[in-house]
Amino acid sequence: PIALTNETAYSGLSGPCKGCHVVGALGFFASLNDFETLIVNNPKFIVPGDPETSEFLQLLEGGSNLAPNSGGQMPPGGPNNTFAQQAANGATTITMEQLESWIAAMGESP
Asked: pTM here?
């Protein structure tokens, strides 16, 4: 798979995420800058170099303590509708493996 940058991660996640997350306090996908500020550079969501403890991936897999009103997953809608499940079914343009590698690479020295 192709290695992701912040821009390609944003682009690949925008399809399933922009429907709900473009305005207000949850406007994570309003722009690339908002995505980087509110998710990528936010230790609440991303632990650079450590995809396993990054809450953002846990949300996409359906095992997060965040978003309790949506069952700890994004997008909401039950265990067969997580981003991870959609990716496994080929319904997304990026994979969970690519997202994991992207976060892992954040911890590497330039």
From this structure: 0.88
81 CB contacts (<8 Å, ≥6 apart)? 73, 75
Distance CA 27, CA 35 (A): 8
Apex 73 CA angle, 41 and 37, nearest 5 = 15
pLDDT for position 110:
59
- Asked if 21 and 39 count as a contact pair (C-beta separation under 8 A), the reply is no
pLDDT the model gives residue 99 = 95
d(CA 75, CA 16): 7
Distance, in Å, from the CA atom of 75 to the CA atom of 108, rounded to the nearest integer, reads: 29
Closest CA to 42 of 99, 94, 109, 106: 106
Q: Average of pLDDT values for 20-38?
A: 91
State the pLDDT confidence band at 41, using cuts at 50, 70 and 90. very high
